[in-house]
Amino acid sequence: MAKAKSVFVCQSCGYESPKWMGRCPSCDEWNTMIEELINKATGRKASGSGENNKPVPMDRIDLSMEARGSTGIAELDRVLGGGIVKGSLVLVGGDPGIGKSTLLLQLAGSIPRSHKTLYVSGEESVKQIKIRGERLDINNQNIFVLGETDLDIILEQVKRLVPDMIIIDSIQTVYTPEISSAPGSVSQVREATARLLRMAKTFSIPTFIIGHVTKQGAIAGPRVLEHMVDTVLYFEGERYHSYRVVRSVKNRYGSTNEIGVFEMKDKGLVEVPNPSEFMLEGRPAGVPGTVVVCSMEGTRPMLIELQALVSTSNLGMPRRMATGIDYNRLSMLMAVMEKRLGMQVQGQDAFLNVVGGLKTDEPAVDLGIVVAVASSFKNLPVDKAAVVIGEVGLTGEVRAVNSIDRRVSEARKLGFDNCIIPRDNLKQIDRKAGKIIGVGNIKEAIGAALEG
Q1: What are the pLDDT tens digits along the chain (452 aa)?
Q2: Sign of dihedral through CA atoms 430, 435, 439, 445?
Q3: How far apart are CA 18 and CA 309, in angstroms?
Q4: Cα separation of 237 and 256, whole Å?
Q5: For tag attachment on the chain, is the N or C end more exposed, with fewer CB atoms within 10 Å?
Q6: What are residue 148's phi and psi, to 5 degrees?
Q7: Per the omega criterion (within 30 degrees of 0), is the bond before 409 cis?
């Protein structure tokens, strides 16, 4: 009898090696190489429908029956690009306890009641799903719950039931007996996702799968997992904050810049139709170090609050801490302030926070960071009716940003009449309503924003 062969597979990136290594040469992670047996007997023929195996001219492809279906949740429709596409495979990732299972169970309850949904749970029993469904006021006889982890049994139930939507919670618990490695390993996750993808395309069933994340925040398993699926959604937000953000990082059927904002309540996740107003609740007035900026999240302008604290350092190397903003961006902007303004901030401890736990990396918030740091350093408050918008260059100039008209319009709707924007953007907006100040460098911006 032939001896079974094995290979060592990195559980972080999927790199394979014939021998064990302490550090993966592909992703440089330590102690991630796990031995897995090679199964040579899986010579399965490629499956697929007959029409998918024949070339079809593009102008003859019929899309009349492929209209998107609404999820019943407007914020989720926005992130998906307008609704659910038949046969699509959507991967939802997020931290433990963030609300992934809650969101997808609410999705099952919000689609039309005539549609059948198969909810496959490998982590909870059917009774536990029922308890959560009662808490969320979900009682639909067309939601079928299956507590199973064997992929072959799951696919058999799909063929028998023929649901309109499938939810897999989670992909790390699903396994196929044809592979000898444990559930959650690279080989199991890759094979399970590939077979679910073929099933979704063959039967035109939209499928949602939940994926665990690593301590670095990336979806656990091989990177190829994100390449195989059609859409990747990340569920963000602090576990102990009430708001949640669903962000699209890959979408073959829509934009990857959209976000959906939810608030976690006793009855589950509730949509937040105006996230700008929600993010600015409880903002202190007349306090140095706080400023409102406008960030574009896809097609939606969002007003968010930045808070900065600058204090004398007792250390040889002053501390820099940034939450929700890139740390290197903060350090660079503080260096620009010291060089171009003569403001001695490099010897100070500096802490910057995006209120509410939101993360943003848009350059248009650069000017807000500069103004917040200057406000705290000089102990002068920012005008409470001011919104600061602009990108800052290394010479201290304020550069133009895109979608300035929508940013200013959103600010005016919430009562911010003093808009400090790049001078090059003045010609793109209507200056009749409200106070619009165009600035060319950070010195002018600080002078226009600070009181006193």
Answers
A1: 455 678 888 877 778 888 999 999 988 888 888 888 766 554 444 444 444 567 889 888 776 656 688 999 999 999 998 899 999 999 999 888 888 999 999 999 999 888 999 999 998 999 999 999 999 999 889 999 999 999 999 999 999 999 999 999 989 999 998 887 788 888 888 889 999 999 999 999 999 999 887 666 666 666 678 889 999 999 887 666 678 889 898 999 888 878 898 988 888 899 988 888 878 888 888 899 999 999 998 788 999 999 999 999 888 889 999 999 999 999 999 999 999 999 998 889 999 999 877 888 899 999 999 999 999 999 999 998 999 999 999 999 999 999 999 999 999 988 898 999 999 999 888 766 678 999 999 999 999 999 75
A2: negative
A3: 53
A4: 18
A5: N
A6: -155, 150
A7: no
| Short-list 202, 15, 228, 200, CA closest to 211 | 228
| DSSP H helices in 150-298 | 151-161, 186-203, 224-228, 275-279
Give the whole-angstrom CA distance, residue 108 versus residue 117. 6
Domain ranges for the chain: 6-37, 70-273, 278-449
Name the CATH topology of 70-273.
Answer: Rossmann fold (3.40.50)
Angle between helices 327-341 and 442-449 (to 10 degrees): 90
Q: Determine the 3-state secondary structure of 319 from DSSP.
A: coil
The set of residues, in sequence order, having a beta carbon less than 8 Å from that of 219 and lying 6+ positions away, is 91, 93, 211, 212, 213, 225, 226, 232
- 80 SS3 class: helix
What's 278-449's CATH class? alpha beta
